[in-house]
Amino acid sequence: MPRKPLKRVQGERFPPDDPREWLNRARSNLAQAQARIKGVYLEDLCFNAQQAAEKAIKGVLILNQVEFPRCRRGGRALGRGNNRAGLRIAGTPREPIGGRQ
Predict the structure, then answer these.
(1) Residue 84, H or E segment
(2) What rounded mean pLDDT belongs to the chain?
């Protein structure tokens, strides 16, 4: 059975301090998280979904010129950055992206 060609997600590349690059990277991780590939562990898909969210938020912080610590504790860093920038970040999502499966 022939495999379907992978959909290209990556668009134009931008420097790492450009929010568009972080949104491109977030889209790439989201595409990986939504992939239904036999043999892929659920936790790997969840990791890619988490990475997509983190990179999208990083893009928003860069766009709004919010300084944030370079750490592996994004959640705690976001709490501080959220208040300084005046950005409101919603609570935890109630449904998965794309609705219930």
Answers:
(1) helix 74-85
(2) 76
Whether the predicted model's global pTM rises above the 0.70 cut: no
pLDDT of residue 99: 53
Q: Structure tokens of 55?
A: 């990179």
Q: Give the residue extent of every domain in the chain.
A: 19-85
Residue type, 12: E
- Dig out the tokens for 75 from the structure: 């959640």
Q: What is the mean pLDDT of residues 44-73?
A: 88
What pLDDT was estimated at residue 84? 55
Count Cβ atoms below 10 Å from residue 52 Cβ, excluding itself: 22
Instruction: Provide φ and ψ at 82, rounded to 5°.
Output: -55, -45
Give the whole-angstrom CA distance, residue 81 versus residue 93: 20
Do the beta carbons of residue 26 and residue 59 sit within 8 Å?
yes
Residue type, 67: E
